[in-house]
Every structure is written in structure tokens, then in C-alpha cells.
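Reminder to self: C-alpha cells first, then the designed residues, so the page reads top to bottom the way the pipeline ran.
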């Protein structure tokens, strides 16, 4: 017998849960793509996207997933002989580096493993050595704000400081695919030159849109690139003179309707409140996991809470129990947990001892507590040992925050 009837809950690190408002906004006939209301709507979407990214720079929109944003960002800085430095903290850092190699860009890798953040001092040391190497300097440092596979949250402001301390001209390029509108990110204040993101996580829209935000410094680098394919070139998209240029052709009409509604929802809540909500719900998950781990094998991949993302949490059980738990929860409770990804070892080549919880976008305490109850039910049904008090610990975090005076909705803090 299964109890998994009713509405399923996709607790994976993207695609995230789509709000009814977004789905309803998309449920309409195709519009005129040449003039009229759609064009007017997109003119408002652009500044609101930049507001979420905290930038006054430009944004290019692509009909692509996050990998498309990776390629677009790299294609626009790929001068002959270009090299990038990747301080990797998980599988997605390595993935972006692999894409760079595929474009003929040289990659220098600093691998910080799968449970530790970027050490800015090592980046600074590498960049100083680069300046004295006699070669053309590294074009960019490319890094993940949050690596979705490990759930590590990197200090991007400190990374910018390391580049500046080395006196190096490298661009700072950051993957915010998992973190945008979940973890605090300040593009301009932190000195980020290029940021990539996608629609299906904190922005609460189906997969299919990706974004590259870029600064004036990045534009200047692009001006020296002799060849960029017409589709990936960010110049016409970021400074469109005609509507079709935003998208390199036909507009992704229904995704845009959904994005407009999602941006309105973020504005209504206020971006500071969005970040705070994500942090509180993440803390409730961590509190449950820590209590469960006192009497069993469960452990959080990232030991220091300050280094954990508010959008995704990677956890380990060992053996094949991550896989067993995921399958049990989906089949019996309607909760889909994220796969273990990039956490392979010789003993566990398919990362089956790990799983991930996505807690990004459109979610609230009853969704989180229901998911945690499902996980604890899975432990019980599968005879996986666990410590007591997990649900109570999660409830205590939420209750404590709820006792605090309510903050304002923050209209205008996010989007214009």
C-alpha cells in the first residue's frame, strides 16, 4: 500500500516548486511576439531582474538551462589564449571548467574538495604567481556561489578581495544558479563582473530561461573577443534595439509570463525577507538533521552552518541508504528528495549513500515540516537508526523566529 496520493512535493535542488500564481500566469494563449503587451512587459522585467541580482549592469536572457548560461558567459570572454582559474568546491565547479576547456579556454584548477569552501588566500597566491609567470594574465576567476552538489556557500566578497589584493586584472565570474533569490548576493557591492543564473530555482519558473548579468569591465573584455557566435553574443541581448534581440529570435513567451509573476511575488515579499525566510527554513532542516545524527549515521556534508547554503543541503547516510530513503519517500509519501551527486568514493561509486534536500523558492514551514516528517518516517520504515527530537528541533527554530516582531513586506526592496 502507498500513501503517496495527493499533491507531490518536489524537494530537490531544482526545478523548485512552482507557485500557482506562476502557473496561472503561464496558462494563456500565445501572444503577439512582434508588438504590444508582451514587448511592454519585458521592458519591465529587465530592471526587475537586475534588482534581484543587485546590479546596475546589463543582463542577457537566453532560452537555455544553466549550462547554457555557463557557455554564454565563457563565449563572451574567450579571447585567443584565454585562461580561467576555477577554485572548485563540488561537481558543478568542475562542470563549468569542463565547458571552458571545450571552448578552447585554458583552465587552472584549485580543488578544495567536497566539504570545504574556497580559501581566498590560495586564490590570491595563485594570481600573484600568475602575474610573475611571463604569460598573458588569467582572464577570469570563475566560481560557484553555491555548488549544488555539495551545498557549500562560498564567500564571494572575500574572493573579490583576494583578486584585488593580488593586483590582478581578472574578471570575477560567479555561478548563482542555485543561490539567486535564496542566499544573499550583492553583485555590484561584491565586485562581481559576470553572474550566471537560471529560472528554475529561486526564481520559481520552469526550466528553460537562463541569465548572464555583466558589468562594464566585462563589456570591455567582450569588445576584444574577435569571434562570438551570434546566438551566444551578449551584446545585442543586453542592449537590445529591437524586441527580438533580447532572445536571439522568437521570445520564450510563456516563460516570460511566469517570470513576470515570480518577480512580482519577490517584490511583494521583499528580497531581504526572501533571504531571511530561506535561512530560517534551512536552519530548521539542519536542526532536525543534527538531532537525527546523534543516534545514527546521518551527517550534514558541511560542518559549519555559516558555510551552508540556504537553498540546498547535502546529507550522507552511507552504504546505499541515501538511495533507499529517496525511493521510499517518493513511493510512500509523495516527497521526492534530490540524488547524491558528485559525492562518489571507491566504496560508493554512484553516490548512493548521499541525498540532497532542496529548499529554494516557493516554500514555507508546513512544506518543510511535512518533508522532514516523511524523512523520519522513511528512517523508521527502513530501520535506519536515528536520534530522537529531530522534528521538535525543526519546530523550535521556526517557532522562535515566528515569535519575533514581523518585518514589513518590503515592497520596493526587490524589484521596481
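Designed residues (416 positions):
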Amino acid at each position: 500500500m502507498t500513501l503517496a496520493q495527493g499533491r507531490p512535493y518536489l524537494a530537490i535542488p531544482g526545478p523548485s516548486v512552482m507557485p500557482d500564481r506562476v502557473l496561472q500566469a503561464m496558462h494563456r494563449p500565445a501572444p503577439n511576439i512582434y508588438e504590444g503587451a508582451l514587448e511592454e512587459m519585458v521592458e519591465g522585467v529587465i530592471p526587475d531582474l537586475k534588482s534581484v541580482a543587485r546590479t546596475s549592469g546589463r543582463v542577457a536572457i537566453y532560452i537555455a538551462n544553466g549550462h547554457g548560461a555557463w557557455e554564454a558567459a565563457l563565449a563572451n570572454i574567450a579571447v585567443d589564449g584565454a585562461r580561467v582559474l576555477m577554485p572548485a568546491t563540488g561537481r558543478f565547479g568542475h562542470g563549468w571548467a569542463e565547458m571552458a576547456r571545450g571552448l578552447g579556454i585554458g583552465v587552472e584548477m584549485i580543488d578544495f574538495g567536497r566539504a570545504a569552501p574556497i580559501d581566498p588566500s590560495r586564490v590570491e597566491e595563485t594570481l600573484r604567481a600568475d602575474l610573475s609567470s611571463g604569460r598573458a594574465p588569467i582572464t577570469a576567476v570563475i566560481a560557484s556561489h553555491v555548488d549544488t552538489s555539495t551545498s557549500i556557500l562560498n564567500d564571494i566578497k572575500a574572493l573579490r578581495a583576494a583578486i584585488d589584493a593580488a593586483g590582478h586584472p581578472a574578471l570575477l565570474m560567479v555561478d548563482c544558479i542555485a543561490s539567486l533569490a535564496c542566499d544573499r548576493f550583492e553583485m555590484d557591492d561584491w565586485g562581481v563582473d559576470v553572474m550566471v543564473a537560471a529560472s528554475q530555482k529561486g526564481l520559481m519558473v520552469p526550466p528553460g530561461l537562463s541569465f548572464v548579468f555583466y558589468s562594464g569591465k566585462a563589456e570591455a573584455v567582450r569588445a576584444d573577443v574577435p569571434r562570438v557566435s551570434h546566438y551566444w553574443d551578449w551584446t545585442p541581448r543586453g542592449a537590445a534595439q529591437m524586441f527580438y534581440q533580447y532572445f536571439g529570435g522568437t521570445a520564450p513567451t510563456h516563460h516570460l509570463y511566469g517570470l513576470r509573476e515570480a518577480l512580482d511575488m519577490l517584490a511583494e515579499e521583499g528580497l531581504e525577507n526572501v533571504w531571511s525566510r530561506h535561512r530560517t527554513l534551512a536552519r530548521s532542516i539542519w536542526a532536525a538533521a543534527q538531532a537525527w545524527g546523534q543516534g545514527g549515521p546521518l551527517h550534514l556534508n558541511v560542518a559549519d552552518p555559516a558555510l551552508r547554503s540556504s537553498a540546498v543541503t547535502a546529507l550522507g547516510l552511507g552504504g546505499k541508504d541515501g538511495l533507499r530513503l529517496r525511493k521510499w519517500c517518493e513511493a510512500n509519501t509523495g516527497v521526492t528528495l534530490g540524488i547524491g551527486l558528485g559525492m562518489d568514493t571507491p566504496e560508493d561509486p554512484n553516490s548512493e549513500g548521499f541525498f540532497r534536500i532542496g529548499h529554494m523558492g516557493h516554500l514555507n514551514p508546513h512544506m518543510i515540516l511535512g518533508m522532514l516528517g516523511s524523512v523520519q518516517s522513511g528512517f523508521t520504515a527502513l530501520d535506519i537508526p536515528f536520534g530522537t527530537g529531530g522534528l521538535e528541533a525543526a519546530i523550535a527554530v521556526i517557532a522562535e523566529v515566528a515569535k519575533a516582531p514581523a518585518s514589513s513586506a518590503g515592497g520596493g526592496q526587490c524589484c521596481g
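The longest strand covers residues 58-63.
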